[in-house]
From TrEMBL:
Transferase keyword on record: yes
A Pfam entry, by short name: Citrate_synt
The protein's name in its UniProt record: Citrate synthase
Family membership noted in the UniProt record: Belongs to the citrate synthase family.
PANTHER family on file: CITRATE SYNTHASE (PTHR11739), CITRATE SYNTHASE, PEROXISOMAL (PTHR11739:SF4)
Leader sequence residues: none
Cited InterPro entries: Citrate_synth-like_lrg_a-sub (IPR016142), Citrate_synthase (IPR002020), Citrate_synthase_sf (IPR036969)
Gene3D superfamilies registered for this protein in UniProt: Citrate Synthase, domain 1
Record bears the keyword Transferase: yes
Keywords: Transferase
Length: 380
């Protein structure tokens, strides 16, 4: 819904002010740089936030130099790579044009892998992979999961049959979280069985994996594409994604949400003047649809439901997918840390798709650096 004080302009005027094509305008919207709303007079027409357009005009004026423009593009900036995988537009997440929230109603992660990559043999998931190496049990803390997954992926694979290798990589990721051999069972069912979860929880796990499958050019997806552009193996490209996800500025959100909720538990559900973390995403001004799709189906704990309501009231924002994953973990009594593992396993589908798409483009990602002389603060 449009805020009452927000001025809107047409697509034609927006394109004219920015000097861009309609296709570029839609790219700006998908990156969250310009908010888009349905016209109150014609639902088929989109209108655009004038404040956002003027901010972009000022930004362009400030950064006319190509080197400065390139630098800002790397920090929630303008699109820098072409992809046919995922689009974020008008508050929706689309996998190859298919709404991810609608897809999550029935699809499995295996089906989403085939959608994103395009030519994966469906029989690959019905045939056994090579035996999983020794496991020390399930690894569910974020650092423990990443370490175990990287160790398993470090074993040499074979890309003679790419579909079989894709299935093997996904199974290794699942094995890191379950502590057991997935075999040929659907991945979400294996996780539910290993975590002794109910059939309702199994369906929630399936839904979460689908919703986490890809999110355009995240930091980890970019790392995957850089590594894949060198011709590295799919396993090494996924390891790059895991390494990026291990950083606290990318993969720590579920830990922060859980820590907050557990602190509230210790204090009788009291929030004081705080609000739940992960209640804003810059690409979704009207709220993260993944978080809503997860939470609306959960048998929420009473205290968690109250915290959600109070946080929404205080911030005017909606919970992100990270909040939804932790709420799901708690609602279905999944092992502590399952939220992060589900995020990483689901995102592996997108990492594989990005790696393969980058390989097909046959270009090396090698930007240039702008040299800057270090300032000697001690002499000032």
């Amino acid at each position: 819904m449009k805020p009452a004080s927000l001025d809107l302009i047409s697509a034609q005027e927006t394109s004219s002010r920015l000097g861009i094509s309609r296709a570029s305008l839609y790219a700006y919207v998908s990156r969250g740089l310009i908010r888009s709303f349905a016209s109150p007079h014609d639902p088929r027409q989109r209108l655009y936030a004038l404040d956002d357009v003027e901010a972009l005009v000022k930004r362009r004026t400030r950064f006319r130099r190509p080197t400065a423009a390139a630098a800002t593009a790397l920090d929630w900036g303008l699109p820098v790579l072409e992809t046919a995988l995922t689009q974020i537009e008008d508050g929706r997440l689309l996998y190859r044009g298919v709404d991810a929230v609608e897809l999550a109603e029935t699809a499995t992660l295996e089906e989403v892998v085939r959608l994103l990559i395009g030519d994966v043999d469906p029989k690959a998931f019905t045939l056994p992979s090579s035996p999983v190496g020794p496991l020390a049990g399930p690894a569910l803390g974020s650092s423990e999961f990443v370490s175990q997954a990287i160790r398993l992926l470090s074993e040499p694979g074979s890309e003679v049959n790419p579909s079989r290798e894709i299935a093997a990589i996904l199974r290794l990721m699942v094995a890191a979280a379950s502590g057991g051999e997935p075999g040929t069972a659907p991945l979400h069912r294996h996780l539910a069985a290993s975590w002794q979860a109910s059939s309702e929880a199994a369906d929630a796990i399936r839904r979460a994996l689908v919703l986490c499958a890809d999110h355009e050019l995240s930091a980890s997806a970019f790392a995957v594409r850089v590594v894949a552009s060198t011709g590295a193996s799919l396993r090494n490209a996924v390891i790059a994604g895991l390494a990026a996800l291990s950083g606290p500025r990318h993969g720590a959100a579920t830990d922060e949400v859980r820590d907050f909720l557990e602190d509230c538990d210790r204090h009788g559900g009291t929030m004081d003047d705080r609000t739940l973390p992960s209640f804003h995403h810059p690409l979704y001004p009207q709220g993260d649809p993944r978080g809503a799709a997860l939470i609306e189906r959960l048998p929420l704990r009473v205290v968690d439901a109250a915290i959600l309501r109070e946080s929404e009231s205080r911030t005017g924002e909606r919970p992100t997918v990270d909040a939804g994953l932790v709420m799901m973990e708690r609602a279905h009594n999944l092992p502590r840390g399952a939220a992060f593992a589900l995020f990483a396993i689901g995102r592996t589908a997108g990492w594989l798709a990005h790696a393969i798409e980058q390989r097909r483009q046959a270009t090396l990602i090698r930007p240039r650096a702008r040299y800057a002389v270090a300032q000697d603060k001690a002499s000032s």
